[in-house]
Amino acid sequence: MNRYILQRIWQSLPVLLGITILTFAFTELAPGDAVTAMVVGGQRQEMLRNQDAATLRRLYNLDQPAPVRYLRWLRELLRGNMGQRLITRTSVADDLWRHTIPTVQLMGAALLLSILLGIPLGVASALHQYSLYDYSSTLLLFAAVSVPGFFAAIGAIYLFAVVLGWFPTSGYATAGATFDSHLALVADRVRHLALPALVLGLSSTAGIMRYMRTSMIEALHMDCITTARAKGLPERVVIVRHVLRNALLPVVTIIGLHLPELFGGTIIIETIFNWPGMGILYLDAVTMRDYPLIMSIVLVSALVIVLSNLLTDLAYGFIDPRIRYE
Amino acid sequence: MNRKDRSWQIGGWLVLMGLLAACAAPVAAPPSTADTDAVGATPAAETAAMPADPWYTAAELTYSWINICTDTPPQYGGTLISAGEDRAMTTNTWFDASPTNQYLFSQLVDLSTELEIVPDVAERWEGNADNTGYTFYLRQDVTFHDGQPLTAADVKFSLEMLYHEDVGSGITGLIPLAKIEGAAAIDAGSADEMSGLVVVDDYTLQINFTEPVYNLVDSIGAFNIWPQHLLADIPFAQLRDSEYAKKPVGSGPFRMGEFVPEQYYVFEAFDGYFKGRPYLDSIVFRIGMTDSVAWIAALEKGEIHVGGTILGADRERLRENPAIRLVGAAIPGAFSIWPNTERLDKRVRQALMYALDRQAIVDGIFYGGTQATVWEYKSADPKGEWVGPETPEFPYDPERARALLSEAGWDANQELAFVSYYTRDTDQAAQAAMQQYWADAGIKVRIETMDSGTWGTRVYEQADFDLAQGCCGPANWIEFQQWYSCDTLYPDGWNAPRYCNAEVDNLVNAAVSEADPQQRQTLLHQATVMAADDLMTMGLWSENRMTAVRGEVCNFRSRQWAEPFPAMLPETWYLAGQ
Hints:
The complex is a heterodimer of chains A (326) and B (578).
Chain A: H1 2-29, H2 34-41, H3 45-48, H4 53-59, H5 66-78, H6 92-127, H7 132-146, H8 149-163, H9 182-220, H10 223-230, H11 235-258, H12 261-264, H13 267-272, H14 278-287, H15 291-319
Helix pairs in contact in A: 1-15, 6-7, 6-9, 7-9, 8-9, 9-11, 10-11, 11-15
Chain B: H1 3-22, H2 58-62, E1 66-67, E2 79-82, H3 87-90, E3 109-111, E4 117-119, E5 122-127, E6 133-138, H4 152-163, H5 183-188, E7 197-201, E8 204-208, H6 216-219, H7 228-231, H8 243-246, E9 254-260, E10 264-269, E11 282-286, H9 292-301, E12 306-310, H10 312-319, E13 324-330, E14 335-339, H11 346-354, H12 358-366, E15 370-372, H13 376-380, H14 398-407, E16 415-420, H15 425-441, E17 444-449, H16 452-461, E18 467-470, H17 478-483, H18 502-513, H19 517-534, E19 538-550, E20 553-554, E21 556-557, E22 574-575
Helix pairs in contact in B: 11-14, 12-15, 18-19
C-alpha cells in the first residue's frame, strides 16, 4: 500500500505544477493588479493617487514581467518559502497557517455535527421507512438546508446571542480577555464556535442523512442480510455489523468530498460571524490581486483535495475488505 | 436511536469541539487590567477629581459630531472596544500612503472637528512676508513612547523620509515638499537632506521654499512625526519590512499593545502623553468586524462600544435605541459620477444631470440625513472661498435634458456603460433609481457592478466606460492639480474623468502662485465655475456620515473631512460609570 500511496503522490506533482501555472496565468489575465485595487478600494486611496502608476508598481514589486515573477515565486516555493504578501508584507505561510486553524475548527465542527446528526437520522429513517418519523425528519432537514446561510446566521445571532444571550454575536475569541485556566480559554473558544458551526452543520446534515437513508435501504435488501437474519443473528448485530458497514461506503465518499471544505472555509458565514477563516483570506487575496497569496492558497487547496481523494480511497479499503491496493 | 445513545453523541460532539478549540493559540496575555468580556463592565478603579467647571461647553452640546455626557464627568479607567480598525494594522503597513494616526502619533498641528487649525506639537508658527519661509516652534515636553524627547530634528527627518521615493508616501500631494529648498538635490541623488529644512534649535524648525506657499498650515498636519533615533539606520526601501513597522513607536496618547493577528489589537494609554494621560486605560480594536450584521448585533448587545458608519434603514432603527448614539456630520464633497469626458459630449453630460431628481432619490433611499448637492465642491466649501457663486446647479429638469440631447444629436439606441464597485443596498437602490430617471429622459444606461481592481482597470487604464461611480469626490482646490489636470491622465496620474481643460489648469496654476488672497479667490472662482459647467464630475449627494456608538462613550468625536482628518482627540474619551 505504501507503494500505491507514493505512486499517487508522484502522479499528482505535474498536476500541482500545472495548477500553479494556470492560476498565475488567470491572475495575470484578470483585469487590474494590486496597485489598481489599492488605488480604488484601499484605505486613504486619495493619498496613494498622489503617486503615479509606475512608482507604485515599483514599490510593490509589480514592475517585472509576469514570467519572471512566476519563476521567482516558484524558485522560492521550492526553497520552502511561500513569499510575502504584496501589500501587508507579512509572510504568506504565517497568514495561511493563522487562517487554517480557525477554518479547520469551524468546518471540522460543522462536519462533525452533520455526521453525528446525519448518519443516525438516516439510519433511523431507513429502519422506519415511510413512517411519520421518516417524513417529518426529512421535511425538517430539508427546510433547514433550504434556508440561505446568511439568513440562518442572522436569525441565529438574533435569537441565541442578542435575545437569549447564550453565545457571543461574533468573533473567534473574546477580544483582549484574560483567562484563569486553559479550560476557561477552551470554553470561550467553544462559545464563539457554537453558532457558526451550528448554522453550517445543519445545512449539510440533510445531504448526509439522505445518502445514509438510501444506502441503508439498499443494504437492508441484500442477500447477505437475509442470510444473516436467517442464521438467527440478533437484529441489532445485523444492523450494526452488516447493514451499516455495507451502507457506509457511499456515505464515506460524500464525507470525503466534504474534506477539502475543512480547508476552504466559507466566505459568507465567516464574514457575518467575523470568523478569521480561509474564506475571508481568499476573498481579500482576490480582491486585492495579491498573487503570492492567491497562488499559495490555490496550491494548498489543490494539495488538500489530492490528499482527501487519497484518504477516501484508502478508507474504502478499511470499510470493504474486498478492495485491495496494488 | 435511543435517548442514551443520543446523549453520548451530543456529549462526544462537545468534547471534540473542545479539543479542536484547544488546538488554538495559547492563552492571550492580559492587555489591560479591565475585564473586556463585555462592555457593561465597570471601568477600573480610579476616578479623576470632579472638575469644578462643566466639562463641556454650550456649543459642544449642539454639535452632532461629539457625544457629550452631561450627567457624568470625565473619569479614568476602562477599556473601550471598537469595531473599527486601522488598515495599517491589517491590510497595509504604516508607510503605505502614510496617513496620519491620531492614537499612536502626534502631528505638528491638528484640524479641529470645528474645522479650525489648532496646535499639536507645534505650539505656534509664523510665516515670512512673502510666504517663502515658515518657522514652527515646538513644545518642549513631548516625548516618544520610549521616553526619548521629540525635537525639531525628528520633524525634519519625517519630512525628508516621506519625500523619499522609496517610502511610497502620498504626502507630497498634500504638502508641497517638492518646493522645499534642496528637494531637487534629493531628486537628483546628490543630497540626503533638504537644505530648506533648518533646525534652528532643538525646538525650532524653519521651512524654506523655493516659491511662495500660501496653504502650508492647512496641510502641514497631514503627517505623523516619526522618531529619527529608531528609523535613521533603516534604509527607506526596507521600512515596510522592518520590525518597527510591526510595532511602531510614536508620541500620541496611546502606544502599541498586544496584537493578535486576525482578531484584535490593543492600544494602551501612554502615561507620558504631553497633553495628559488619556482617560481610557486601553482601546481594543476588533479586526475584521466590517459586516454590519456582526457589529450592529455586537453593539446592541453591548459587546463593543464603537461600531461603524451607518446609513438607511439600519440607521433609523438604531436611532430608536436609547443605548446608542449616532455621532458624525455631513462629509465634504459628494458621492459622484465621473463622466468619461473624452467620450461624452458636454451637452450629454449636462443632460444626464438635469435628468436626475437627486433630492427625491436620497429622500427615498436614505431616509433623510443625506443632501442632494448642487455641485460636490459646494459642500466642501460652504463659505465660497474657492467655489464660485455662479456655479451652475443643474436642478431636476427633464425637458431641458431632452432638449440638450436633441441639440447634441443623441442616438436613443446608444447605451451608456455605468461602472461601479459600490454594492451596499443603498448604492444599488440609488443606481436603479438613476437608471430609471435617465431612461425617462431617453438615455439608456447599463449598470455594471465589479470589484475595485476591475473598476480601476476599466476607468484608469482602459478608459472603457461612460459613467463611473466613485466615492466622495474632491474636497479642496489643490485636488484640481492632483487629479483633474491635463498632466494627470493615466499613467502619469489618476484623472478618472480624463478631464483636460487647459484654461482651468492655467487659472489654478496662477492661483497657486498668486500672493493677493482676493485675486487668488477670483482665479479659483473662475476655474471652479468653468469646471462645474463642463461637468468635470457629477456630484450626486453628500452623506451625513454617522458612527454608531454606545451612549456611555463620552466625548467620542467623529467628523470626516478632507486630509488631514479632524482630530478625534481619543485622549479625551471616557466611559461613563455603570
